Amino acid sequence: MRKLKPQGRDNSNSRRGQQAVADILNAARDVLVEEGYPRLTMRNIAKRVGITVGNLSYYYANKRDLLHDLLEAVIQGYVEDFERIIKDPKNSPAERLEEFVRFIMGDLGTKETTNFFPALWALANHDEVAAAEMSFVYQIERDALAEIIGSMRPDLRKKDRDILALFVSASMEGHTMFIGYGREKRAVASEIINVAVSSFVSLIESIDARAIRGLKPVAKSARKLAG
Amino acid sequence: MRKLKPQGRDNSNSRRGQQAVADILNAARDVLVEEGYPRLTMRNIAKRVGITVGNLSYYYANKRDLLHDLLEAVIQGYVEDFERIIKDPKNSPAERLEEFVRFIMGDLGTKETTNFFPALWALANHDEVAAAEMSFVYQIERDALAEIIGSMRPDLRKKDRDILALFVSASMEGHTMFIGYGREKRAVASEIINVAVSSFVSLIESIDARAIRGLKPVAKSARKLAG
Amino acid sequence: MRKLKPQGRDNSNSRRGQQAVADILNAARDVLVEEGYPRLTMRNIAKRVGITVGNLSYYYANKRDLLHDLLEAVIQGYVEDFERIIKDPKNSPAERLEEFVRFIMGDLGTKETTNFFPALWALANHDEVAAAEMSFVYQIERDALAEIIGSMRPDLRKKDRDILALFVSASMEGHTMFIGYGREKRAVASEIINVAVSSFVSLIESIDARAIRGLKPVAKSARKLAG
Amino acid sequence: MRKLKPQGRDNSNSRRGQQAVADILNAARDVLVEEGYPRLTMRNIAKRVGITVGNLSYYYANKRDLLHDLLEAVIQGYVEDFERIIKDPKNSPAERLEEFVRFIMGDLGTKETTNFFPALWALANHDEVAAAEMSFVYQIERDALAEIIGSMRPDLRKKDRDILALFVSASMEGHTMFIGYGREKRAVASEIINVAVSSFVSLIESIDARAIRGLKPVAKSARKLAG
DNA sequence: AATGAATGAGCGTTCATTCAT
DNA sequence: TATGAATGAACGCTCATTCAT
Questions:
Q1: Is the pLDDT of residue D39 over 90?
Q2: Of C38, C124, C202, which has the smallest distance from its Cβ to D38's Cβ?
Q3: SS3 for D174?
């Protein structure tokens, strides 16, 4: 996970204030990552920054705003990563897909990412601010994937490319809690990523658009072949 | 998501006690699902059951134990589902894989599953009880998958089958927060599940064991084929 | 000021709870009377009762409700006083008026009344609950006065009787902060009450209905008479 | 209510400082009038002036001093009004009394007066500064009234004139919360003021000094007359 | 004169937990 | 079994005040 880039609030003009806001968001992220959302309290954040609650609420008058800026800052970091990868010229679209998958699934092994995203998902289920931020970052991720997929399969319709992007994105994210930092299957992360790359590249290269709409039974035909 | 089957604790001898514990766990699950973990308070649970906090603490002296039983009960429901599917005789292994995938990814569209599992993942990051329960249920899921994979690809080593099972399992779970109940991409759940079935069946049927270990570059060879 | 008669809430069934609520309201009234509204905090009330804040909010989940019950209980005491006086058979209506005035203006010398009502008036300007309670108690007071006035002056229309009742009531209340408990002019309270009785009785007995509507200039005619 | 005339403090030498203090006191009065004393915070005042809390505390190092100046400034406005009315030459003393009553009870219908004075009365019960200011303004009011009463009734002793002045003053003030700005009985303010003028003029003109000392029973004689 | 920053206390409220009945 | 009552800590937030710049 990357450094936070706070958007600022009104304190943006003062150097001390900017630094304080950055410190607060960093501390908040650390609390969220290390102790979990239920412990993300104003007091815990203030303690980690080394200021008083009173002073914390000078910068953030309420927790809602702080959470909003925290999620925004964290997510902005990923968005910038995606943009960099997309702009990176690569020989083949498949290579770009591979790099993208390796980047996402590699990053998911960092402590911050491993802990941040499940918290975001849970939060998004009951918090509109979190839901909006989550929606935003994954839309960017899918846009990047859809662009790569489009260059690999110009024959596919936009809607199909979007579905494939969604499938690849969601599948990658699902590995967070298994091969993430300190997680049970962290040891096989490398193999899992290999499988992922292989599976996704193969899927994109060879899927028949009819299969997306369920017009091309897979398992049953496989049965016949096997029989 | 299925009815909860509380394991009981010491109240297992009394019929009334069993019912009360079941009511409590159902209420607790509802609170968790509908309001989120931070709102899963003893008071909220008691209110939903229609008893007092004092009486709730007769059944559960502390929140830890209640949470433990709640997770256990919810998870036991899934374990029973997996067992039923595995025992179900099917013509082909691929069909069984398809059914398994369709079951998991279909269930993930229910309100309870959509909300319960992200909460469990987030919780597991900072709570050992949750981590243990999560570990347990996914081990069962992977065991089921590994068994099916083994019947599809007897040539693969156990370790490779386990990795493939992990990949399929994690990939499926990752769709919870995207095509789950009320989620942004719920509308394309059907297409996504088609893609998943197609992708997983194809992956299992055709993956080369060397690819798992990274000995068979995918994207680069793909480039050559494409070129 | 009289003993508080709390209406109860849900705790009305339990003897301990009833006593606790009564203790709370008494303590709250004492805080309001002795320290003023800005110091009427949950902590101050709890301290005076000898319980913890946590326990206080077991009886009153929020301050709003507590304030409502406090005002209601205090005001109910006065309402009962008014009713008793009205029912009290007296030889002449004028005697009843005198008794009423002496009761109100006598009570206004008690510490509780002297401090409670200005607080209520100030509160009513920005708090709807207080405004409603204030409106209620003075309506009762005016009803009592209007009834007496009606028996003294059956020739007056209801609207005129109501206006006279309002004038007498408001005039009496205005003395609270001057001849009330410990106030600057407390020493002449007795003389002031004599003047009040004399003035009100004389007013009711001799006012011309036209004067109420401004059709009978007072000062100017007085000038002529004086001239 | 009239414009505030701040007495200055040490900032009196600087024109900008004078203006700033005036702005602060005006803002403070507005907060007190519109939001009530509990909301009369340094922050609210500063916000209304458009300065920071830090700067506010340059002009007023503590809230006590600010409150003192606020009350003083507001009250000085009334004192000047009283003086103007007294100096105003009128044909008859009764006319002067009528004008005084109409002025006071007319002013009491302005938003500022309606809200300011109940706040002052409540405050005076627990704040010596407020008590002193309140004492001061009403002494002026009573002095004015006593002077008029003296010219109407040269036969009365000073003590009796003072008591009558107190009665008239207190009675008038008592109408604030009933016929004041936006209050329940505002609609009959005009009739109430007519009654007040009629009642006060009649009282002053005809009261027997013995009645003040309770030597001339009013209601009982009335009974006889009625009987 | 004016700001931004900071403190420490206190606010109303909620929490898990305990316990006598 | 079940309730009502109670605690003490923590929650998000606001407050008057201080102070370096």
A1: yes
A2: C38
A3: coil
